[in-house]
Structures are given as C-alpha cells and as structure tokens.
Amino acid sequence: MRNLLGLLLLSLCLSSSAYSKVYDYTHNNRLSLIEDPRTSVDLKVELIRSAKHHINIVTFFWDDSAVPARLAVELNKAHDRGVEVRILTSYIATLGTDPLGKGKRNLNLKSKNHATYSYLSLTPGTSFSVNNSLHEKIFVIDGEKAIIGGRNASNSSLSGKDLEVLMEGPVVNQVQDHFKRMFDFIIDQRISTHCNQNDSVDSQCVQEYKKLEFSSKDANFFPEQAGFTGGEDARILSHEALIHQKELGLSRSERLTQQDDILDTVTKIEFKKLRAYNYFIIPTPKYKKFLEDSLAEGDSIEMITNSYESAKFSSNYGYIYSIPDAMDLVEDGLELHQWQRNQKLNYVHEKVMIFDEDHVIVGSHNFGVGSTAVSNEIAIEFKSKPIADRLIEVFEYESGNPAITMKADLNFLEQEYEKYKMQIKILRMKIVEGILREIY
Questions:
Q1: What is the spatial distance between Cα 365 and Cα 44, in angstroms, rounded to a whole number?
Q2: SS3 of residue 168 by DSSP
Q3: Strand partners, 301
Q4: Pairing mode, if any, of strands 347-348 and 352-355?
Q5: Residue 428, exposed/middle/buried by CB under 10 A (0-12, 13-18, 19+)?
Q6: pLDDT tens-digit series, residues 120-162
Q7: Which of 80, 159, 280, 362 has a C-alpha 20 to 30 A away from that of 310?
Q8: pLDDT value at residue 130
Q9: How far apart are CA 93 and CA 133, in angstroms?
Q10: Residues 6+ apart with CB under 8 A from 243
Q11: Residue 359 near residue 25, CB atoms below 8 Å
Q12: What is the overall mean pLDDT for the chain?
C-alpha cells in the first residue's frame, strides 16, 4: 500500500534529516476557516489589538496598499504598548510591488521601549536562483492563536479566491517553531552580510541582531496549550527551501527534485477522490507522476485553476506555460475547471487539497515547481469532516457553476495549445523555462 510505506519512510527518514522538520499530529485543536478576504483583515486587526506580548508575521511581500497600511497602524500601536513585533518578507517580492519602500516606512522601526521591532527581508540570488523567497503566510499572536493560508499582506488579496485557517491549541506551537527556525536563519544571514567588515566581526552589530531572537524555552512564545475537547487532529507541514539551499548548495536541476515535506506528504496519501485548487498546473516531475499514477489506479481528481483571463492579474505567462502539462493530465483523466474573470473574486490564489471526505491540507504551497524549487512554504494538515464538508460544498458549487468556472476538456486545451503554440515554444526554451518555472 502506497500510504503505509510512505508513512514509514516519512517518520523514519525525513525526521532524522538535519535540514528538515516534520511534525507529529497534535490533538484537540480548534480550527476555523477564514473564507472572506475582508473578514480576514478585520480579524487580524482585532488580534493585533488583543496582543499582549508578541506578534510574529511572515508574508511574501509587504506593500503600500491600504491593507498593510491599516495593519501597520495597529502594529505601531501594539509596539508602543510594549508588544514585540517581528515581520519576515522577501526583498524582491516587496521591491516588485512597492519599489520605493513606502509600506515599510509605514511601520515604526525605531524601538521606543524594551520591546523589539524587526522587519527582516531575504535577498535572493544564491546559486543562480532568481527568486528565493519567504512565501509562507504566517500570523501568530502571543503564541496562542495563529493564521496560515494563501493571503498576502496587500490589497491584491481582496480580489482573489483564497483561504486561511485560524488555529488554537497545540498546533500553534508548531507554527511558532517553524517561524523561529526561519527567523533565526534570516538573522544569521543578516549577521554574515552586515556584521563582517574587513575580516573582523562587529560584535555590537551581532548583539543588535541577536537580541531580536527568542527562546524555544520561553513560555510566552511556546505556552502550554490546553486544547479543546473534541477538537481536530492537526499538524504543520513545512518546506524550508532556503535552509536546504544554504546547507546543500543545490543546483537548478537539484532544486526541482529536492526534499519537499509538503508535497512528499501529499504524494503518500491514499484516496478515492481528490478535490484541489491549483494556482497553475506546473507540477514537479514527482508530483505529476503522483497525479498520473493515482488517475491510472482509478482515483478521481478534480482541480480548479486559473484561466487565461483570470491569470492576467499577475501574468498569463504561467497559464500559457502550463497548457502542455494540463493537456497531459486531462488526457489521463483529470477533471479540470478554469476560473472565469467575470465576478467579484477575479482569480484563484487558494492552495487547498481535500482528500475524500475528511482529510484536508491548506497552506501557501502552490503545488508547482516554484514552491518546491525556491520557496519556503507552510501548510496545515488536519482531519475534520465538518470542515471538509464545508470545503466540498464550496468546491462543488464553484466547479458546477458556469458563471464561476468552465470545464477545460482536452478539446479546449488543444485549441488553447494551437492558439499559443509559439509563446509556449518560447516559454519552454531552456533559459526562459528555468526562470519561469521558479517564478511559478
């Protein structure tokens, strides 16, 4: 059985890796879906106002639109009352959305009291990668409540089909643990680039960075979680591509096949029916084989993804590039639905998998090459029939409503291929392909 062997390998092999973190299931967690984007912003404002000790955030970018500006107002107030605030983001992603850094300047970066306030960005570029990124979306308040999912801190999140999970209980400590691993990693990168001058180490510079770190033994950050009777079993899945790249120095081809604990977990799950949201259909070879093998075994797979029009919110190059892979999978039996851009939510940014009737994965991973090759990612895996029922209800409504999605059968995709054949050929040229696959 695929699942049994996979779980044994996962527990015996991956957990022993020096550069990997696979978490065990925790019990009695309280999980809530955050479906509406405006509700998400309101909730985060409310949580910031309630914070007593710390707020830890990871976001792909932090721009100068109204959403992060509103959050910045509340974060500055929290900092002024002594709350420690830590924000991690990616330099290139933020530069692309806010080149003048106005969003960063909305944050009060000068410490006014004993609390630390940090805004640390990762600058990509190691080993010929153009897009090493902190792609997780993490929001932790006082180590007691956490939000992860697909939404970025930007107005762009208000017009996309997306999902987040609010969690309370023991699983929050796993989110915090992953945050600490990445925060410490970025601190070390900053020290190595900013504190080494003329073959000597500026000890004061090192101390300024080190004071931003926090201890895994500090109960303020890792409280003993009481749990909720009858709550969900859940665990965090993480893909720490930045640590892999630093420790292993992976080449471009090696990055495509590197250990990815999120997708490695997915490919070990047995199911009869899978419903999923995919940003674009640009799978790694391993993930594509998993889908092909599952379809060959008679399993049912339905996906909702972006269309040519809905992809325009970012760039429709990802859609055009994805057509050959989509054709292959549809020919193998995948039922594919494309999002139509004639409604309030213009595009699909949701990263969700629903296995059968109760097994769910929600997070930041796009289930594409870029997420595996160059991006840090996080997801929550849990068992809950009530939550799965809600997600299935939404999926069935969206996939069955022609005003929301259109079924992309093989005939349609072949027409798309003919229409964009020259662009596909250019995008799949070796140099262009390598860059584009890492972006998506």
A1: 21
A2: strand
A3: 274
A4: unpaired
A5: middle
A6: 887 765 544 556 889 999 999 999 999 999 999 999 999 999 9
A7: 362
A8: 57
A9: 8
A10: 19, 181, 182, 185
A11: no
A12: 90
Instruction: Tell me whether residue 116 is in a domain.
Output: yes
Using alpha carbons, list the distances in angstroms from residue 324 to 321, 371, 426.
7, 19, 13
Segment 45-62 mean pLDDT: 96
Instruction: Identify the H or E element spanning 247.
Output: helix 241-248
CA nearest to 333, candidates 409, 413, 415: 409
Are the beta carbons of 360 and 160 closer than 8 angstroms? no
Instruction: Copy the structure tokens of residue 413.
Output: 């995709």
Indicate whether 250 and 363 sit together in one domain: yes
Based on the fold, state whether residues 61 and 205 are members of the same structural domain.
yes
8 A C-beta contact, residue 353 and residue 276: yes
Tokens of 433: 């392909």
Q: Is the pLDDT of residue 11 over 70?
A: no
Spatial distance between the Cα atoms of 193 and 143, rounded to a whole number of angstroms: 30
Question: Out of 27-41, 44-58, 191-205, which region has the weakest mean confidence (pLDDT)?
Answer: 191-205
- Residue 59 φ/ψ, nearest 5 degrees: -145, 145
Three-class secondary structure of residue 264 per DSSP: helix
d(CA 106, CA 73): 8
328: which 2 tokens?
């292959």
Are 418 and 383 within 8 A, CB to CB?
A: no
Q: Indicate if 340 and 432 belong to the same structural domain.
A: yes
Residue 256's pLDDT is 84
One domain, residues 41 and 117: yes
CATH classification at residue 411: 3.30.870.10
**Boundary of a domain, candidates 157, 179, 210:** 210
Indicate whether 244 and 201 sit together in one domain: no
Q: Which domain holds residue 196?
A: 30-210
| Claim to verify: residue 172 and residue 241 sit in the same structural domain | no
pLDDT by residue (tens digit) across 360-392?
A: 999 999 999 999 988 999 999 999 999 999 999
Q: Indicate the residue type of 255.
A: R
Percent of residues, the chain, with pLDDT higher than 90:
71
Please tell me the predicted confidence (pLDDT) of residue 16.
35
Which residue(s) pair with 338 in the sheet? 305, 406
Residues 86 and 131 in one domain: yes
Q: Are residues 258 and 200 in the same domain?
A: no
Q: Give whole-number Cα distances, 284 to 30, 32, 246, in Å.
A: 33, 31, 21
d(CA 231, CA 30): 5
pLDDT at 288: 96
State how far the Cα of 326 lies from the Cα of 280, in Å rounded to an integer: 9
Q: Residue 58 phi/psi, 5° resolution?
A: -125, 135
β-strands 54-58, 375-383 pairing: unpaired
Per-residue pLDDT of 246-265, as tens digits, reads: 888 888 788 888 899 999 99
Confidence of residue 226 (pLDDT cuts 50, 70, 90): confident
